[in-house]
UniProtKB/TrEMBL annotation:
Protein's recorded name: ABC transporter ATP-binding protein
Molecular function per GO: ATP binding
Family matches, as Pfam families: ABC_tran, TOBE_2
Keyword Metal-binding: no
Domain of life of the source: Bacteria
Species this protein is from: Pelomonas baiyunensis
Residues annotated as domain ABC transporter: 4-252
Upper taxonomic lineage: Bacteria, Pseudomonadati, Pseudomonadota, Betaproteobacteria, Burkholderiales
Keywords, alphabetical: ATP-binding, Cell membrane, Membrane, Nucleotide-binding, Translocase, Transport
């Protein structure tokens, strides 16, 4: 198939612009996730691609096809919703078969009596049910084909919704928070299954979630959204290691990235926590220096020394999460330490952030490229 190219997409509800001049290319066959806080416009974007709503301006193209000119059914997209959207009065078999019935049988063929009088309708229905059975087998729900949705668990219902999307072999799957209603264990298991399904089918998946673990663990690329705009589109590792802005850095990673103030001097040196940490060719002035809680080390290593007073210590299995209050700033940082580290509340404690784990952003929050200092230097 082809890439999906979205250009200048704007959608308003009344006076509120929910999507603002949004541009995005979804590559053919990739697993792309739209990640953002509730209300940032993720579902709206998905609905515009599916044809369930229309934009005010902008284009959505797939190869040489203008998707906006096509009806939802002609777009070759299948959508899977958080709420499953199954027909309660139909069996699992009938639910899964529904897209093929709608496509393969005319109005008369869909009437309940048609199969009694028409051998052609009977044959087509038998083929459709065989296809439904095959998809159900792949998703391990073939033992449930005669049940109604009310007699299924949440995970089973979501599998039926997936099967219904798969049965017509669409070229694009659109997922709107499909796992939100499930418990943590099931969510974890289904994440892996959905990713495997993507790899087997080899078609484009566009997945909406506000859960960064879900986004980071499943996707080829993640588009981070905020207030109707895309802040960055990148593979999960790039988003985590090289966030383009402080906003993205704060959104991705848990616990949240630590940020302490820094200063860029006229000679380009960056100072932070009374240490010379790096140099940048940019303008002088205040900046933000950031590091992830997991990036700190207790070993002596070249890097930024962070010293503070231990506050709350949280035990998290193989590690501890400790809050450090930095006396100079009065700011609290969270650092991740190996379990068993002697970090007692009220005591002074010191960690090092290796140079390569430091992120520097200008006063406006945009990432600065920096030259690492190779010698730990204290500023008098
Ligand atoms: N039909 C509508 N009429 C009016 N406002 C709407 C409509 N649909 C969505 N909105 C508003 O548009 C904004 C974006 O909604 P959208 O559902 O796209 O967000 P989202 O990022 O998917 O959020 P969530 O994760 O909570 O589902 C919200 O403020 C929402 O209230």
């Amino acid at each position: 198939m082809s890439d999906i190219q979205i250009s200048g997409l704007t959608k308003r509800f009344g006076s509120a612009a929910v999507l603002q001049e949004l541009d995005l290319t979804v590559r053919d066959g990739e697993f792309l996730t739209l990640l953002g806080a509730s209300g940032c416009g993720k579902s709206t974007l998905l609905k515009l691609i599916a044809g369930l709503d229309t934009p005010d301006t902008g284009t959505i193209r797939m190869g040489d096809r203008d998707l906006l000119a096509l009806s939802p059914s002609a777009r070759d997209c299948a959508m899977v919703f958080q709420s499953y959207a199954l027909y309660p009065h139909m069996t699992v078999r009938e639910n899964i078969s529904m897209p093929l019935v709608m496509r393969g049988l005319g109005f008369w063929g869909r009437l309940p009596g048609a199969r009694l009088v028409s051998p052609g309708v009977r044959r087509r229905l038998a083929d459709i049910h065989a296809s439904a059975q095959e998809v159900a087998r792949r998703l391990a729900i073939d033992g449930l084909l005669d049940r109604k949705p009310a007699h299924l668990s949440g995970g089973q219902r979501q599998r039926v919704a997936l099967a219904r999307a798969m049965v017509r072999h669409p070229s694009v799957f659109l997922f709107d928070e499909p796992l939100s209603n499930l418990d943590a264990n099931l969510r974890h298991a289904l994440r892996a299954e959905i990713r495997q399904l993507h790899d087997q089918l080899g078609v484009t998946f566009i997945y909406v979630t506000h859960d960064q673990h879900e986004a980071m663990s499943m996707s080829d690329r993640v588009a981070v959204m905020r207030e109707g705009r895309i802040l960055q589109v990148a593979p999960p590792e790039d988003l985590y290691m090289r966030p383009r802005s402080l906003e993205v850095a704060r959104f991705v990673g848990a616990p949240r990235i630590n940020v302490v103030p820094g200063e860029i001097l006229a000679n380009g040196e960056i100072h932070c926590l009374a240490q010379r940490i790096a140099a940048t060719p940019g303008n002088s002035g205040p900046c933000h220096v950031a590091f992830r809680p997991q990036a700190v080390t207790l070993a002596r290593a070249p890097g930024l020394t962070v010293r503070g007073v231990v506050g709350h210590v949280e035990y998290a299995g193989t590690e501890l999460m400790a809050t450090l209050t930095l006396p100079s700033q009065g700011e609290a940082c969270i650092v991740c330490l190996p379990a068993g580290t002697a970090a007692r509340a009220g005591a002074e404690f010191e960690v090092t952030v290796p140079w390569e784990a430091l992120h520097v952003f200008d006063a406006g929050g945009q990432r600065l490229s920096i030259d690492r200092c190779d010698v730990l230097a204290r500023v008098a």
